[in-house]
Amino acid sequence: MDNKPDELMLFAAGFGTRMQPLTDHIPKPLIKVAGQTLLDRTLNLANEAGINHTVVNTHYRGGVIKEHLKATSVSISHEKNILDTGGGLKNALGAFRGKAVFTSNSDAVWSGENPFSYLSNNWNDDCDALLLCAPIDKVSGRKKPGDFSLSKTGVVKRSGNAVYLGVQIIKLSALQDINDTVFSLNLVWDTLISRGALKAVTYTGQWCDIGTPENIMIGERLLEHKIV
Question: How far apart are CA 179 and CA 186, in angstroms?
Fold first, then answer.
């Protein structure tokens, strides 16, 4: 078994177009839900789970995020041109020392067990990436269809009723054969699916996608434990 990963790539470079007009002047990760920014919520969860090195990629209004994080130990990977999730991780490879890292979006809220701890407790060396998922009818702020289907042993296939919750552990070697500069992690996952090397675990807590302005209220209700 590999040592537990303790590094995080946190994606914060996107334009947040679904969040307009809120993102006309601030990047989506700095939108507040129940008085705290989405970015800080994710970083706090990572810190609580023992993650001791985080890299945040930036592009849209990256200077605002850099200023927000100036008093922290977080490293910034600024992208002159947006690189998508896979390209963003590849661009930051030199910042990581381990063989596997967490990656996370910064546009969700959680209620329940720490998602990073939950994933770490289920991580071992029998796959190249481990996704955190949940059934579509057990999450908030998302509509059907789901993203994946999971076998009884957690092997992932495309399409189904499982929603990817935006957090994974991935071996950095999974990117080694991709020569593109700009690409989605979906490209990596498709390769891993083709050889049965992509797995997932089902989260037992609650999760809300904060992808639109309307979902902010849904997320705040979840944090107040009003969603069951």
Answer: 15
